[in-house]
Amino acid sequence: MFEYLHLMKSEAMVLLIIFILLFIKLGKGLPNDTLLSVVQLLLLCTVVVSFGFNDTGRIFNGMFLHNTLVGFQKGILALAVYIISLVCSNWFRQTEHLAEVFVLMLSALLGMFLLISADNLLMFYLSLELSSIPVAALANFDLNRRKSSEAAMKMIMNSALASGIMLFGISLIYGLTGSLDFAQIWGQVKTEPIHMMAFVFFFAAFAFKLSVVPFHLWTADVYEGAPVPVTAFLSAVSKGAVTFAMVNVLAKVFANLSGSWYVLVVGLSVVTMLVGNLFAIRQDNILRFLAFSSIAQVGFILVGVSGQNDQATVATTYFILVYVFSNLAAFGVAAVLLSEAGITRIEQLKGLYTRSPFLAWALSLGLFSLAGVPPAAGFFGKMFLLMAGASKGNYVFIGIATLNMIISLYYYLRVVRLIFTSADKDVASLQVSRPVMFGLGICIAGIIFTGVISWIYDHIQSLV
Amino acid sequence: MNVEPGLFHFLVIGAVLFFIGIYGFLTRRNLITMLMSVELILNSVNINFIAFNKYLWPGTLDGSFFTVFIIAIAAAEAAVAIAIIINLFRSHQSINVEVAEEMKY
Amino acid sequence: MNTTNIILIPLLPLLSFILLGLGGKRLFGDKAGWIASLAMLISFVLACGVAMNYFGDHSADAYVGKVVFSFPWLPFGNGLKINMGALVDPITSLMLFVVTFISLMVHIFSLAYMKGEERFHIYYAFLGLFTFSMLGLVISSNLFQIYIFWELVGVSSFLLIGFYYQKNAALAAAKKAFIVTRFADLGFLIGILVLSAEANTLDFQQLMINLSSPEYTSAAGEFMGISVLSWGLALVFIGAAGKSAMFPLHIWLPDAMEGPTPVSALIHAATMVVAGVFLVARLYPLYSIAEVGVQSLISSIGAFTAIFAALIACTQTDIKRVLAYSTVSQIGFMMFSLGIMSEDHLGYTASMFHLFTHAIFKALLFLAAGVIIHYVHSNEMQDMGGLAKKMPVTHIVFLLACLAIAGIPPFAGFFSKEEILLNAWNNNRPIFFIALLTSGLTAFYMFRLYFSIFWNKPHHEQGHGKKEGSWFELIPLMILGVGTVLAGFVPFGEYVSADGKPHHAPIDLQFSLGPVGIALLGILLAAWMYFKASSKPEKTAAGFGVFYKAAKHKFYIDEIWLGFTKGVLFNLIGRPAAWFDRNVIDTLVKGAGSATQSAAEGIKGMQSGKVQQYGLYFLFGIIIIVSVFLFTQGGR
Amino acid sequence: MNLLWIVGVPLLTGLAIVLAPARHARMIALGGAILQMALVIGLYFSFTHEREVGNVFPLLFEKQYQWFPSLGFSLHIGVDGISVAMMMLTAFVVVAGVLVSWKMEHMKKEFFFFLTLLAFGAYGFFMSMDLMVLFFFLEVAVIPKYLFISIWGSGNKTYSANKLALMLMGGSALILVGILGLYFSLPPESRTFDMVKLAETGIGFEIQRWVFPLVFVGFGVFTALFPFHTWVPDGHSSAPTAGSMFLAGISMKLGGYGCLRAATYLMPEGAHEYANIIIVLASIAIIYGAFATMMQKDLKYINAYSSISHCGFVLLGIGMLTKTAITGAVFQMVSHGLMTALFFAIIGMVYERTHTRLVAQMGGLLKVMPFIISAMFIAGFCSLGLPGLSGFVAEMTVFVGSWETKDVFHRTATVIGAMSIVVTAVYILRAVGQVAMGPLVASGEGVDDARWYERWSVIILIAGILVMGLAPFWLYELVSPGVEIIVNQFAGK
What we know:
The structure holds 4 protein chains of 4 kinds. Helices cover 78% and strands 1% of the residues of chain A. By secondary structure, chain A is mainly α. Chain A has one domain (2-463). Chain C is mainly α. Helix content of chain C is 73%, strand content 3%. Chain C has helices spanning 3-28, 32-56, 90-113, 120-139, 143-161, 168-199, 204-212, 214-219, 228-243, 252-255, 261-270, 272-282, 284-289, 292-315, 319-339, 346-376, 392-406, 412-427, 429-454, 471-486, 492-495, 509-530, 536-544, 546-552, 557-602, 611-632; strands spanning 66-75, 81-88, 222-223, 226-227. In chain C, a hairpin with a 5-residue loop joins strand 1 and strand 2. At the C-D interface, strand 1, helix 5, helix 6 and helix 25 of C face helix 7, helix 12, helix 14, helix 16 and helix 17 of D.
């Protein structure tokens, strides 16, 4: 029993919060402010628990695998949720169903924890569904916004299709290998057409979750329509979890196909970066813009994944950490702007600097980091991804990736420029509440220090 | 015409079901029908699993268990989806998929 | 020989430049001129001392060049280095004396002449810089060092010519002077590069030794059939021709009169224009071993410039312009004399002698012209006339100078020009005849000038109380007048010769008859035409017709150059380059941007907002991937 | 002397600017800049002292700190004479830049913060001996430039800022691909980013062959390598005064230094392979830039185009691959940095007073602002290579070095380069003459001359120009051992 608790401490913690919330809901309930503070506190505990005392072990007949790296990855995800709970606190405070929102969100988080710990296809499938169905429901939580329900519909429909196709792939894998265990499948997969077809079907689900082109089309619509915290959750937490899982599965299960999936990853990476960038250039809605920018980022993550070695794992984990900070800084500011000033379009960012230097800086730093501009951590993140990718010696691919970095710089800088341009007319200054400031502060500190302090990277390296 | 049903037949049925489901998903305009098409896809997977379990790997019950879980999850998914569709109906007064195309480009 | 003294000679004017330039009006006020003049006086005294010291030293049987000090200023990686040093030899001593003397005269003259100018102190600062540059140039011990001061001379002439900076004409003239000489300096620079690479040194003395050594001469390379050494020397000569206003690079000099008149005196007499002659003289040993083509290039350009400028001078009406063309012509004399090589190297001595005498009387002429211009407030000849009575001192010194430049014995110009002509007669007859003709023309236009200013028609202006000029102006004139009379008697050949050994140039009176006769003829012609106001000049001019018109328009050389710069440099190269940059290269960049934009616009249909289409893309994605896999990887 | 202080001071200055109230920003920035200058001058003296006492290590004050050790990086810092020279240039320009912007009102806190950030990047760049660290600092210095132009700039600033940032980033992308390629092409046991080690072990010719052009062109973009120079005119003309000073004075030097340190030093055979192409491109840049300048009407465009021409000399010197020519390239970097910063400072001052930058609308300004215009003359004369000022020293060294190689191709290139000195004279005199001389224009009536901070900014830069121009042996002694090490790389092969 103790072993279960020890290895599943993050999951147990999340489960505990969910139950606490349900019990509170069963009783009289609490005012939103108090409830939010409680949740934030508990989430902070989860973060601490997840990062600390990690050990290696398998439970449930080997279906659940925990090790130090996975522990660290769970920590990143928990941290991301904690930051979301801070930076989006305006929205949380105003929502009618705060407890439900968190129950759903934490269920999804639980699913993700299980997902990256999964060592069995059944476990994998269950946790993947657990991590996606609640999010679809969450997307609908701006109950009176037409766009919100449209987003939820698009998400659930697409993800149902995706999981159907993935399941078809899983069934083929099962049929071909006779096992659902990662370790056993590993030896059985061959470079034969039917194997590869199964792999592609299976891989499509990852591609869908990660919004890899051409499986990305739901992303922008959902990001735009869903409530900002959900979007932030989708873009940071969900993406991170799926990336971890994908790196894990590709390396563990499909190592025999590595020559094939290298080509696949490289091709998809190029297309994803290109399409994401090209769409991002012409967006004028902030959230849609961030959606496409995160698609382009996914393309970049794939560059690292293509490295197919330990360094690729380290680089992607590191990048996700950086990406959480950068992306949540951007989403956090977007959330504040939406709730305080009703700003949704990029043009309206004009004069943001005069309205609130803090928000302006947080957003700019986030965008710089996303663009990969030093000394922001994103620079290091991207560089390590490129290094991981370059170890294969495919420099044309690396060249294309850097070219895409330039294109992305164009639209990130466009936004930054608007932030610092003076507004046409006088606008009221914006107040930033304390939790938001704290959350953004964490992001800023993360952006600045994750990069230049090489200790973090070395720590991740030591975990592999 | 007394053919013993074998793995091949089940797989064909599974594949046919799968493509019918996909066809339905892509062509039906009614969201509920689309959802039903998704169920078809899931069922085709179920057939696959069962067939594989029975004919190829009868030693363990992995496939059968998987099927059970898929059925359960499909129910959950359908529940959420229908809730979302209901909400969509409230805001759009229709469950036609074409009414929800506001966000694009 | 005192090293400090030699260094101080150029440094004192530099000091005056720095003090006046930085301290300006605030510190010195009207005393600026005195300070500068004092510095110049000390310099002059030191220069005299150096010259006497040097020429008085008879310990060896020849005057040899001595490098009195030298330090590496800029080493290059390949063993070459620019040394800053001082080389003292006969021509350096001579030039130190000439430059400081003329500059001192100009300094003193300007005390009165420039009085009341708003930028009085700046003027003196620039004079100091100019003198410094020229002095640095003449003591240079290193080919690159001479280039450095060469450029400084150019820029200080720019500053001085443009002194009246609010006049557009001054600006144009200053620019022209700088750019034209700069253009020529390109040749000089490449010449330096050629020579230094050949000789592996930049120091003059080593340069001469290395390049004239038999080992080098036997191994010397060629480029396009001409030896590299000759290429280098010819290129250096282009630089010299630019500074010395040789045809066709002479165009800047006449315009340079836009500066204050004393500056013209300095430029024309002692500094800028003789720098080219000095450079060729400095490298004379090399020129004397160069191919004949280079020598005849120098002599023919010199001779052509001499007569060409003389012809133009006959037609000009602005007195400073006439003097300017006369300078061009006289420098042509010096140059061709250097180019005519002979066994005894008489041309060298003659050229230097002429440089010496010309400096004195040309300074005199310009300063006198300055006095006259101040008196009548005009540069034009027709505004003058009948000034002989009004300006007695000026009149006399001007006459002396005219006689000197015309080559009438016993004035300074006679002796030097005689030597030049004699050398030409002995070694190059065609040039001799050109030079003889030029002498006649010189006498004619100088006396045309003289008669037009001082006689011709009575002076109308009722300026009774008007003074001729202050003593500060007249005393330098008188000193220079005395110099004009006496300079010719200096036994020049004793001191300055190509090999440093005393050289006795005999005056051949029989030979002198020709040139003097021609000169007298020119004077008489001028007297006949211009002593009294008459219509004779117009008639004569009409008689020459087109030729007169062409000469009056300076043979359209300015227009040709202008056409070249405007047409070729600006319109044919500059404009296309700028256009290319803005329209081709920039368009490529912009094109990349707009291509990205339109690509973004082109693929937007993908994101149609339709769930089912998204599903379709999803499926297509899978199908494409699978089929790619099956086609490419499936076989393996 | 610990070199980390030199990057630390701008960093601390930046931090102080962020934390202190906006009204103190300029004081802090100035104090920091002066402290940097003092440190760098101190560095110079301790450097020469070390050399005098016989320390012949190529790199002095070398330190190696752990930084991403698992990836083969290390914070390896150290200086040779070239670095010291470049850092002194940076220090001078930074002080002058801060002074020139003394009256900056709009978002001054950020302005000075970015200034110090740029300085931080530049110092770090010049002292790093690790390719990745070098790259990091190079990138640090890019984005502040973008913000300078897009926030404080003028004219078509959006376009210019984008062009600048994207082209420079394009350059650094090439560098990155090159560096990564270099790293991973090496056998695993000798993989390192440490330049000293790389130079020791040597890089195979097959690798150099394709990595060298990437790295060289990448840095070349920064230093206006034809045809990647097109960001230069737009970027400079739109930037605020201090921005232009930094851009031309320091940023373009990053490229030249990188070409030398990261490309030529590490890959001598590659340099040999491509030297002729470099020479051709540099010659084109020199003469083409000069002619294009001749047709410009805006003072900033004039100086920007002339920068293309002048930076061509840097590349020409490097392409010639002789010791003298490379020394000349380093000289030219220092000289051009000082001179062009001075020129931009002056243009800014003139613009502030007359509200125009069009040459045709100015005239006779010498009368009303003698100090500023005299400084402009000095800048102009320096640009056209007047002896006694730094430009002459640099150009002549390049010419002498280029002439060393005795074949028609190299010499033709030299002659083409030398031709530009005439064209330079033409455009400088046209522009400066028109601005300074002639009748005074109406816009010049009643304006005042330089104020104290402007005076000091100008004086500092002129002092640098004069010191280098009058006593070049001093810089030569500093730089030449460093150049020798680079050249020995060729000699050894």
